[in-house]
Amino acid sequence: MELLSVNLGRATASEHTDHADGLTGIGKRPVDGPVEVRDPGPRGTGGSGLAGDEICELRHHGGTHQAVYAYAREDLDRWEAELGRPLRNGEFGENFTTAGLDVNGARIGERWRVGDSLLLEVTSSRIPCRTFAGVLDERRWVKRFTAAAVPGAYLRVVEPGTVRAGDAIEVVHRPAHEVTVSVQFRAITLERDLLPGLLAAGAALHPDTRRTVQTYLAKTGRDGVNAR
């Protein structure tokens, strides 16, 4: 399992963002050389976990639980075939483009060692937004991306470190539950009956996801059950 590229974004103007100044950092490009990765701090004040990576809309992106976004090259390749166009590393806004790693099958709370020092923990899936759809410029993109249920993973920084393209990725901890990135995504976007089962992920569950589950339970009167 390998880190194919480390991708950083620069603030650029876009008509598809809700940022007050009309800027977005979604367009990320691979970089050469080492990049420092650390906990950026709480969302709203903290941006990306990668030094030099700009996040403009801090209300909805970045922060501790979304410090790094990873997407598999294998999934980009499948989208290339479906869309009939090349997709470079970083085009989906991912910081890490990986190879040989089942990103969507990763479990919430799973930990990855990247390179010699960086330790990350999987927190949640990516949820597609209008900026993503607008920049990619594909018809009905949010609906298509959602239906595919290969969203990629957000991660928090457990131990900071420096990484570069070509670094090895090792799964050093895999929780016993079955709440994967894909299951979490489908529960949030497609199959609401899966929501109670997300609680099996315990403390590793993203705070936003936990609030969504709690709201669902309050409205339906259901109890938490095992995810399927």
In short:
This is MOSC domain-containing protein. This protein has five helices and twelve strands.
Cα Rg: 17 Å
**What sequence of helices (H) and strands (E) makes up the elements?**
EEEEEEHEEEHHEEEHH
How many structurally independent domains?
1
Please estimate the helix content. 10-25%
Bulk shape: globular
The count of strands amounts to 12
Number of contiguous helices: 5
Distance between the termini: 27 Å
Structure commentary:
It is a single chain. With 228 residues, the protein is α+β, with helices and mostly antiparallel strands. It has a single domain (2-220), classed as PK beta-barrel domain-like (M1 Pyruvate Kinase, Domain 3, Beta Barrel), CATH 2.40.33. Helices cover 21% and strands 24% of the residues. The protein contains five helices and twelve strands. It has helices spanning 73-83, 130-136, 141-148, 181-189, 207-220, and strands at residues 2-9, 12-13, 23-24, 28-30, 35-37, 68-72, 96-99, 111-114, 118-125, 153-159, 161-163, 169-173. It starts with a strand and ends in an 8-residue tail after the last helix. The relative contact order is 0.18. Residues 29-172 form the MOSC domain. Residues 29-41 have a biased composition (Basic and acidic residues). Residues 1-50 are annotated as: Disordered. It comes from Streptomyces cremeus.
